[in-house]
Design goal:
The complex is a heterodimer of chains A (about 350) and B (about 400).
Chain A (H helix, E strand, L loop, with lengths): L6 E12 L2 E13 L4 E5 L6 H8 L7 E6 L2 E2 L5 H9 L1 E4 L13 H11 L5 H15 L5 H5 L8 H13 L5 E5 L7 H18 L2 E6 L2 H7 L4 E6 L2 E7 H6 L4 H9 L5 H6 L50 E2 L2 H6 L7 H4 L1
Parallel strand pairs in A: 3-8, 3-9, 6-7, 7-8
Antiparallel strand pairs in A: 1-2, 1-4, 4-5, 9-10, 10-11
Chain B lengths: L8 H20 L3 H38 L22 H25 L1 H23 L37 H37 L1 H16 L2 H11 L5 H28 L2 H8 L4 H9 L4 H24 L10 H10 L9 H29 L1 H4 L3
The chains are: A alpha/beta (about 350), B mainly alpha (about 400).
């Protein structure tokens, strides 16, 4: 973690205006992404994972805060450099049926960026490059695919085309926004393995956005996991640490809820009951720690008063956003009777 | 349109020379059938429309010949080989041939789709019948503009006559052949309607996509203007305007129709573009920095073509109704030959009360109705032809 970060978010805040009300979708996001690293963003739907991904990919401006690319904000670069840097950050969408234009063949879809940015010289090289890209994403034989239209391919094949399209411009980072969640389970492993291989072959950094903790654990074992809740990162650290020793109560609850295939394990697994199943609305984010109305380790007077910082709690390697944990290093289950 | 070039010897010479292209290519690739057919079609269309008609036909015919010749030839690019086994180099001649073959293949696919949808094919045949009749009918049938009193039947009170072997659609109030008026009278009407439809479509597509892509104030202004025009009762306004302004060219009339016709299509295009611009593939194109031109022309437009084509047909249709309506009411200057004028004059000359005049009055009405019906039926197939999902299934 000593090299210069590829992209860095500093105090990024983003709000959307809905019915004249500003809803804070992202608050206080601080992230560093190193070249060639894997970062998993996990969280419930509506927690701001996708918005973070879109801000990183440069598709959405932040409301305030800074996004640094190679150590400087985009505005510090010349117009041409800006375009190049933006191009080095690509996104792979969730829905493989919506992310490819139905009007073009696969060959055409891949040829547009190659031609536009003069990545190839001449027709022969263009055709060769398209074949290379299709081979790279395991769509073989490529000759079968190039003249096909997207609707003639399966979901997994389309997702591979979508990845190949992102690779046309030689990106340094790919944001995979729920890239395998719409694909049949039997196809997922193949796709994930391919993404791993591409990362090693091409030196890509991958931001993998998912709501599936098991998937995050499998995919980002060598990387980091960032757990998001209501627009904030509540815990971030190396994947094995976060999975084995979750710090934040929310992460603990998430992990406790992951079903195991082994009934023996499930039977003896400790269940962590939340105090409320309801996710607060973005228009009514609770005071203090936004998780406190649901938190099984709620500490009255502290959790509902003070907004926690993302710090390293004692005895933990990862960072967490929990005041009692950061102050004392332990959590005490909340017992209402005690305080009544 | 070069329809005035009908029957000019120059056209024949142009067609002969242009037709040699598919013929020679057909000879080169042993595709005699399509070479000869291409030659004949080139001859015919150049004869009718000069260079404007001949050149596209020559290109299409040649591409058809090539696509048949290359149907079995394997392109390494689409072969089953793996990456190391293939060379992608090709000369520009090979490239040209490949492109022509692709074009020919597209033409064949379109033709097959047209033939597959029976209803649409009937519509297409109907439209082609009227277009060809207007373009080439004059070669075979002479126009009768002068009154012909010598055709009066002994004892008849008027010159009207029901259909007979000599005059298949009968005679009108001046003893002229109704058939000749039907053949000659559709040309201005069809051309003006197509012009009106074209202008309305261009305005609607331009304003609609601008409103959708720019949004904000531009969107509000354009939408307001569109809604405003929509609330105006169109036909009465058309009546008033047409009687105030004297139109001596069909283009003026077409512009007037287009000015009243665009808002409905504009709203449709705007809605379509609004939905298309939020698609993931548009966002991907933005992330790939492909440029606004690419986004409009390659990502958004191809997905609206079928929609626009169908709406174009419908605006041609409504322009035609309005035009006939104006003529029948006698608002726009009457100039023969014209289907609308036939209805107007027939009514004036008492055709309504004369059984012998039934065919004179009904012929233009049926011609208009059948043409309109054909347009609507044809619109159905157009949608299929432009939809890639349906195309590649054939």
């Amino acid at each position: 973690m000593t090299s210069k970060p590829l992209i860095e978010l500093r105090n990024v805040y983003r709000s959307f205006e809905v019915d004249g009300q500003h809803l804070p979708v992202l608050q206080d996001i601080n992230l560093e992404i190193q070249p060639n690293e894997i970062l998993c963003l996990v969280g419930e739907s509506g927690c701001g994972k996708t918005t973070t991904g879109r801000i990183i990919a440069g598709l959405l401006p932040q409301s305030s805060g800074e996004v640094l690319v190679n150590g400087q904000p985009l505005s510090a670069y010349s117009r041409q450099q800006q375009a190049e840097l933006r191009r080095s950050l690509q996104i792979v969408h969730q829905d493989p049926f919506a992310s490819l234009n139905p009007a073009h063949t696969i060959g055409q879809i891949l040829s547009y960026p190659l031609k536009r940015h003069r990545m190839v010289k001449g027709r022969a090289e263009l055709r060769r490059r398209i074949w290379e890209l299709l081979t790279l994403v395991d769509l073989t034989p490529p000759g079968d695919i190039v003249t096909k239209y997207p609707h003639q391919l399966s979901g997994g094949q389309r997702q591979r085309v979508s990845i190949a399209r992102a690779l046309t411009v030689n990106p340094k980072l790919i944001v995979a926004d729920e890239a395998v969640s719409m694909v049949d389970v039997s196809i997922r492993i193949g796709l994930l393995k391919m993404l791993h291989r591409l990362r090693e072959q091409l030196g890509l950094a991958i931001i993998f956005i998912t709501h599936d903790l098991a998937l995050a654990k499998y995919f980002a074992w060598e990387g980091r996991i960032a757990v998001m809740y209501l627009g904030r990162i509540v815990e971030i650290g190396p994947t094995p640490e976060v999975i084995a020793h979750p710090a934040h109560p929310y992460t603990r609850a998430l992990l406790a809820a992951v079903p195991e295939a082994d009934p023996e394990v499930t039977r003896h697994k400790q269940h962590l009951a939340l105090r409320s199943e309801e996710i607060p609305r973005l228009s009514e984010i609770p005071q203090g720690c936004s998780f406190h109305p649901r938190c099984p380790f709620f500490l009255p007077g502290i959790c509902d008063a003070k907004t926690p910082e993302l710090l390293q709690p004692p005895n933990f390697i990862q960072l967490a956003r929990c005041t009692p944990l950061n102050d004392q290093g332990t959590l005490i289950p909340y017992e209402p009777a005690q305080y009544r | 349109m070069g329809l005035d070039a009908v029957a000019s010897p120059t056209g024949l010479v142009i067609g002969f020379v242009l037709g040699l292209i598919p013929l020679l290519v057909g000879w080169r690739y042993r595709q005699w059938k399509w070479g000869v057919i291409g030659w004949l079609v080139c001859l015919f269309s150049s004869f009718g429309c000069g260079l404007i008609g001949g050149l596209p036909v020559a290109v299409l015919a040649t591409s058809l010949v090539i696509s048949y010749a290359f149907a079995t030839r394997e392109d390494p690019y689409t072969s089953q080989a793996s990456l190391d086994e293939v060379t992608f180099d090709e000369t520009w001649q090979e490239y040209l041939l490949r492109q022509m073959a692709a074009l020919g293949h597209g033409v064949r696919t379109s033709a097959r789709m047209l033939a597959r949808n029976k209803v649409g094919f009937i519509g297409f045949a109907g439209v082609m019948f009227f277009v060809l009749m207007s373009a080439f009918g004059p070669l075979f049938i002479e126009y009768e503009g002068e009154a012909n009193f010598s055709r009066r039947q002994p004892g008849a009170s008027s010159l009207f006559q029901p259909p007979s072997a000599e005059f298949p659609l009968g005679l009108d109030w001046q003893g002229r052949s109704v058939l000749s008026h039907i053949v000659y009278g559709g040309r201005t009407l069809i051309l003006t309607s197509i012009q009106a439809g074209l202008i309305a479509t261009v305005i609607a597509v331009a304003l609609g996509s601008l409103a959708a892509l720019l949004g904000g104030f531009v969107d509000q202004a354009i939408s307001f203007l569109g809604n405003f025009v929509l609330t105006i009762p169109q036909f009465p306004l058309l009546l008033v305007l047409a009687s105030l302004i004297s139109f001596n060219s069909s283009l003026g009339l077409a512009l007037l129709f287009a000015a009243l016709n665009w808002p409905a299509l504009m709203r449709a295009v705007r809605a379509q573009a609004l939905s298309l611009r939020k698609r993931d593939y548009v966002e991907a194109a933005v992330a790939l920095d492909l440029g606004l031109g690419h986004v409009i022309m390659r990502e958004v437009f191809p997905n609206m073509v079928s929609y626009i084509a169908v709406n174009f047909i419908f605006s041609v249709r409504s322009a035609m109704y309005a035009l006939v309506g104006l003529v029948v009411l006698g608002i726009v200057p009457l100039s023969e030959p014209d289907w609308g004028v036939m209805i107007f004059m027939g009514r004036q000359q008492g055709a309504l009360f004369n059984p012998a005049a039934a065919s004179m009055l009904l012929s233009p009405i049926i011609a208009i109705a059948v043409f309109q019906l054909s347009l609507v039926l044809f619109a159905r197939s157009l949608e299929e032809i432009f939809n890639p999902r349906l195309r590649s299934g054939v």
